[in-house]
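User: what does the whole thing look like in 3D?
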Amino acid sequence: MDIPFNVKERPDTGLYNGKLGIWFFLASEVMLFGGLFSAYIFLRTGVDNWPAGTDYLDVPLATLNTLFLISSSVTMVMSWASLKLNDFKKYKLYTLITLFFAFAFLVVKYFEYSAKFAHNPPYLPSTNNFLGIYFTMTGLHVLHIIGGVLVIGYLYGPGSKMWNSDPERFTNRIEIVGLYWHFVDLVWIFLFPVLYLL
Amino acid sequence: MSEGHHKQSFWSKYIWSTDHKIIGIQYGITSLIWLLFGFALMAIMRYQLAYPGSPVPIVGSLLGEGGILPSEMYNSLGAMHGTIMIFLGVVPLAFGAFGNYLVPLQIGAIDMAFPKLNAASYWTYFLGSVIMVTGFFVPGGAANSGWTSYPPLANTATMGQTVWLLGMIMLITSSLLGSVNILVTVIQLRADGMTWMKLPIFVWTQFITAFLLLLAFPPLEAAGVLQLMDRLINTSFFMPSGLVVSGEVLQNAGGGSPLLWQHLFWFLAHPEVYVLILPAFGIVTEVIANNTRKPIKGYKSLVYAMIFLGFMSFVVWAHHMYLTGMGTTIGAFFQTTTMIISIPSVVILTALLLSLWGGSIRFNTPMLFALGFLPMFGIGGLTGLPLGLAAADIHLHDTYYVIGHFHYVVAPGTLFALFAGIYYWFPKLTGKQTNETLGKLHFFTSFICMNGVFMPMFVTGLAGVSRRLWDGGESYAHAAGVFQLNELMSISAWLLGVAQLFFIVNIIISLRSKKTGESNPWDATTIDWTDTTSPPLGHGNFDKVPTVYNGPYEYSVPGSKKDFLPQSQKG
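Assistant: Here's the predicted 3D structure for the full assembly of 769 residues, as structure tokens:
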């Protein structure tokens, strides 16, 4: 028994089930991060002196991280396109580069966080609401990155066996995780100016 | 994926199933148990309200010294009653159980779009609900800051509040998975010919409900994370500067805002009201169309009114916050949107009422509950109007009037609709019929008791009795004139509990009876009745997936042989 339109597109919607599902999931993610961004605005407008991002945060490191994530988005698309062109080797290569950029992002983030904790006096979430919302939002974003790395890593390793048995479905999976990955990048594109620059 | 044909063990068939029908039943049984549990908490509270300071019979020894309900525990029971009834009871029953079981059957799908996700959604809900209730066993007892968990009170409350937040995050995750599933199923898996305007109203209501759950819940998840941070690592998102608790200045950075929580909370919790009521509209529509034997009045107006209702429900949340000092300009805006949202509700209720006109009504148990729903929801809705106007709300806010209002919407409103649905689809689930006499006894006793509980609340509320008084207002002069009504309400509530025995006994007797062998006992038109056996066999629902030709309510069609024309019948 197979659910219809699991792999093939439904003609009148032009979508297969998983793709529509991930779009709805991302819609709810927009509301999740939207809630946090609203909280940020609410907290910031509610007090007289809100610190500038540069008082606490390292803009050059964050710029580097932005570049990492944007690059990983590009390689993510390339790995999906490679599968569409039936080139499994290139898929492997581009996915490896994507994973590399994601790891680089996490390493930079690790150094950023530890610098905050090592500062004297330490910069903690409880220090003030700017740092509180900074750690909450970037922390939630890092969790999303880690989730993405796990799934992309699975599809690079054991999950890629599906290419031999059901290539179309496997390509769909890469497209879906790609949509998620672009969304996570997009969140960072908003986080970077809001927290670091404004 | 499992096939219906081979033999399966009990565990893989009923516990770890990915079949939407089994998952629907799992949701149904779990949520009914939680409803009973939530009711029991309230029954204990009502003893304290009727006879303040007297030892509670039967369960007294569990509560506190001398069997008297302590005031801290009263707060816990109140907070947990609200949480359990809404998040563990009514929503999983209306959306999880009915939606899961019926939506694929009504649109001609062999299962939900993502069966494994569906099972994950149930088990996340199950886990979340268990976590929620373990709050009773941690030091300080369960969450005791009201079901709304307003900070700063909730931030400084005992450990139960942390458990509440963790449970809530699980429940939110569960409803996210469930709503994505319903949305994709309805969009992608409709059978051939099942166009949008041929969908049964029930499917429309589930579809809109899924949108509300998908988009309204995440901000509460954000708020829950922020409150967890406040409680566990001492951030100050909801804590203003210089807050003094028990004579001591709190050691935190300050600068936060309790209002922020209220905005994020009500951004969920107002759409949540429509999550509670929309599936009820859907069930009542199906039952009324079937039992008046005529098409529903104004199918398209119903659909458009419900879509508009869903949309508007996102822009009315701050009418819960008129008294918070958020400012009169914002108040005026939300007062206007609140008045606007009452229009589609009236359209829906009017369409259902007009549908009765000229019908040859069959007064069976599901129909009685559906008919009971109409005036009860009417009372609940109309009493909400004064609360939506800021000036009137100043007097009524946080009184028993509010309690009466939303209980009329949810208890004799939504719950009656859900009972109608249970009686109506019981033959589908089991192939057996419920007992009509017991069903009617259940309806009439519940109907009287419901009004006995909630009608006096309007009186005490107008007198100004606050909703969270441990002694029911005994020590307040302004409550003296109405205090004795508490006894009437409490006795009605306990009798209401007894009346549910008719339901429980009925279900048990009916489950033990013989199958009727009829697959469409109500002569219904929708394909859940006409194209599957009762109960539907195995995984896959249909022997042959039907093609749809007609609208959902083709009753008494002129020139037709029978008085109903199934959706899947050409002609």
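In plain terms: The first helix of chain B runs from residue 10 to 15. Chain B has one domain: 22-237+256-530.
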